[in-house]
UniProtKB/TrEMBL annotation:
PROSITE patterns, A to Z: UMUC
NCBIfam families in UniProt: PRK02406.1
Record-listed Mg(2+) binding positions: 22, 131
Function: Poorly processive, error-prone DNA polymerase involved in untargeted mutagenesis. Copies undamaged DNA at stalled replication forks, which arise in vivo from mismatched or misaligned primer ends. These misaligned primers can be extended by PolIV. Exhibits no 3'-5' exonuclease (proofreading) activity. May be involved in translesional synthesis.
Gene Ontology CC: cytoplasm
HAMAP family assigned: DNApol_IV
A single GO BP: error-prone translesion synthesis
Cofactor binding note from Swiss-Prot or TrEMBL: Binds 2 magnesium ions per subunit.
Protein name: DNA polymerase IV
Limits of the UmuC domain: 18-212
Region described as Disordered: spans on this chain: 258-287, 374-417
Active site per database record: 132
Amino acid sequence: MSRPGRLPVESTREDRIVCHVDMDCFYAACERLREPALRDEPVIVGMGYEPGETSGAVATASYEAREHGVESAQSIEQALELLPRRETADPDAEPTAYYRPVDMPYYEDVSEQVRSILAEYADVLRAVSIDEAYLDVTDRTDWESVETFATELKDEIAETVGVEASVGVAPTMSAAKIASDYDKPDGLTVVEPGDVRSFLAPLPVAAVHEVGPKTATELAEMGIETAGDLAAADPAALADRFGERGRAIYRYARGEDDRDVTPVGRPKSLSRESSLAPAEGDTETVREQVRTLAEAVADRANRRDALYRTIGIKVVSPPFDIHTRERSLSGPVDRPDLVRSVALDLLSAFADREVRKVGVFVSGLSFSAGDQASLGEWDDAGGDTETVAHDDETATSFRSPSGNQRLSGQTTLADFR
């Protein structure tokens, strides 16, 4: 699929087009990626949960599980009362659910794949959690074609990674986020500049940016129950009750939001992956796929003016064993032919294996051409390294090529998806 190029126009704030991409039930979606039998079934992912135990809390409940009252932050014990564990339930018991423990390194790896796609659709990207990001796409599309643009983005995520995203498009960050929640799951909602206030007006006041449950309760005491009520309220009275935040939520309810999408930081790795269904045992077929992925990764690095110090591959073999191998140079380079040859060389270690999925990544990124190393300077200290995670091992045995430390800090229930 050809990527959208930069439009030769100078945008104004009124022209700005912001996309908010939110992955639907992300943890459960990731579990379904490696266990296709879980598709369309109630799936509950627990934090602090171990298979067969009743401790922990619900991190994510699939939409099928939510239909039975299971919600994020519930205790696993409560969830089990609503949906018994499928594997141990009475054969005649209905409904039941599949329970799985949180596997953050795996989810981070999938998140990195999604983010790599997002980076191709926008020059300005801000990932705000493991499963959501803002994109400023003003220079990639316009309001007449943005629905097609966003549809292509959603389709590429689904086809390449295998997870669904809901996308909201609006001229402001706060409206785009609300729009992405408007038609979940797998939704797409476009709110054009002149429609923001009318779009927000009938929504519950809790939908407004910076309005949490406690603030919503206080607003209800003031007779303010919808975003439209808030937009029509007296800003001075709101400031008296809530301070400067009162004026801020008043502006958000009116569709006024001058925040810019600002990147958190540059990526630490770039990758592309491809699934092979069914698992492929033909070595040349897998090698051809690796060649294609290596070219795509090298091209992505080149377009982002990125140099890389490490080249690696990821191989997933049946049932769900994940292997990564990588080779490091003493300094960063920009050599597409090297990415291809090293990836194929690393792949030779898996010549006798069936392959379900294969990926190529570059990491140790830098963005200064002056740092480029010469060929032949492979890091003698490191050599090739390999990491393996089996489906029955703990998550800590898997090393994701992501390198995004911001994601690994997700440990609170408030952050769960």
